[in-house]
Amino acid sequence: MILIQDNELAHSWYGKIFGQLTIVFWYSCMFAHIAVSLNRYISIVYPVKAMKLFTTENTKYALGVLWCCAFCVTIPYFFNETCYLAFNAHTFQWTYAATNCGQTLSHFDFVTGVIICSTTFIIDMMTLCSLRTVNNFQTIGSQTAAQASKRRKNEIRLFTQAFTQCIIFCVTLFSFHIFTLISNNLWWEFSMVTMVWISAHTLDGLIVILFHYRSLFTQKLRTLSSTTVVTVSQQKSSRSAVQE
To answer: In CATH, what number does 7-224 get?
Structure first.
């Protein structure tokens, strides 16, 4: 569409449906952040209940509800003659319909996004406070300096990850709805809408990897080590059986 400057295709029925799917994925991503924050909070505050609650079966149901909610939010987009989000091939950005319904959807998505980001941040702060409270109940004599330092690092990592992810999505929302009003320059609007959206979703995934790559790497090493030990033990047992 961009190469051939075909705006008719972008604003066709297929282009509008693609825009609707984009909003579905956006809300599913936002709801997923709330779900992860709740999971983290319940796991720390109610660890026993969390083991019973967060089973594989319940996780599947939660994912189903999450996607259903994301889909229900976009029901107005089915009226794609007046309510839609489409990619403009001339300005290289996603734009809402220039109708009352389109502008209402724009405001709704902005306010809803701010509420979701704020809720996620509040839950993460509650988790951080709960984590510190739990650690304070432990006596200084029952933990070594290394253990205290490790807990402290986990608290900082939890706070930094949650804060950074919330800031990224808040900046994305303000960039799409507010910063684009600063200038009518084509490339400014392109960078504030399309490029910011792409960067936000890319950074969101990178943040998770950067903050947890050590634990993932350590877990793989432990799995590899345990597998090696089991294999060596089996070989020794087989040799002993043969010698006998």
So the answer is: 1.20.1070.10
